[in-house]
Write a structure and sequence with these properties.
The chain has 246 residues and is of the alpha/beta class. The chain is built from 8 helices and 6 strands; from the N terminus they run H-H-E-H-E-H-E-H-H-E-E-H-E-H. 35% of the residues are buried. It binds iron/sulfur cluster.
Length: 246
């Protein structure tokens, strides 16, 4: 069987140095930025970070945004992750009344009708729960990588752009990892991962907004594929001045 590991695991020449840098960054973040949390969508990058946090025994609890639209494979991995994660997992869900009102007014396929409606759905299912998840936190850890998309090409390892407004730092410890590095780590440590990755889903989100891609297609081409490239973010990684950066 073709698996994501067979297809993608290939360490870059500088993998060992990048891994050491990532480990040092996570240790420093945990020591100096408490309370700190990991934002996990249970994608390949996130399971690597969770594995690193567990193996380094760091006090970085994880949260997951359950939008109510996740694939069954993602929910299955969430259940397994809750059993295996040392620092704990908190699941945040959208406000039920807001979802009922939105779906009642716009239907279940509103996201395909306009970017505004898609962003409204993302706001109530992801952005608002994210705000609750980050309330009171000094830092968060994400799986953003520079080669995920053009919009992410300049993602820093440590992003202090939100410190002035919210006293919150964002750490992107895999910013300079390649997709091959991610899968090399998963292979090396036998890390549990979302089985959708074995079915050509590199980036996994909600069911209506995620599809499999062909070999060679752009990493993010399976997300919001009906929209222009520049619109393809859900609002989770937007700077305070409203420039979309991730
Ligand atoms: S990704 Fe799609 S289903 Fe999920 S919150 Fe955004 S618009 Fe809604």
């Amino acid at each position: 069987m073709t698996t994501a590991i067979n297809l993608h695991a290939k360490a870059s020449p500088t993998f060992a140095a990048k891994l050491a840098e990532t480990q040092a960054l996570l240790k420093r973040a945990a020591a100096e930025f408490s309370p700190i949390t990991q934002a996990s969508s249970l994608g390949a990058e996130d399971v690597v970070i969770t594995h690193l946090i567990n193996s380094l025994k760091l006090d970085i609890a994880m949260f997951v945004l359950n939008t109510g639209m996740l694939h069954k494979e993602t929910l299955q991995l969430l259940a397994r992750t809750k059993q295996a994660t040392r620092a704990g997992v908190t699941v945040y869900e959208p406000v039920a009344e807001a979802v009922v009102q939105f779906v009642g007014r716009e239907g279940t396929t509103a996201m395909y009708r306009s970017v505004e409606l898609r962003k409204a759905c993302c706001h109530l299912r992801k952005v608002e729960p994210l705000e609750r998840a980050l309330a009171g936190k000094r830092a968060w850890v994400t799986g953003l990588r520079r080669d995920q998309s053009t919009a992410r090409a300049e993602v820093p390892l440590e992003d202090s752009s939100d410190v002035a407004a919210h006293n919150r730092t964002k750490f992107n410890p895999l910013a300079n990892w390649t997709w091959g590095d991610v899968w090399h780590y998963i292979k090396l440590h036998n890390v549990d991962y979302n089985s959708l990755h074995d079915h050509f889903y590199p980036s996994i989100g909600c069911v209506p907004c995620t599809r499999s891609i062909a070999l060679g297609e752009d990493f993010r081409s399976g997300r919001w594929w009906w929209e222009n490239e520049s619109a393809k973010e859900c609002g989770l990684h937007v700077k305070q001045d409203n420039r979309e950066t991730a």
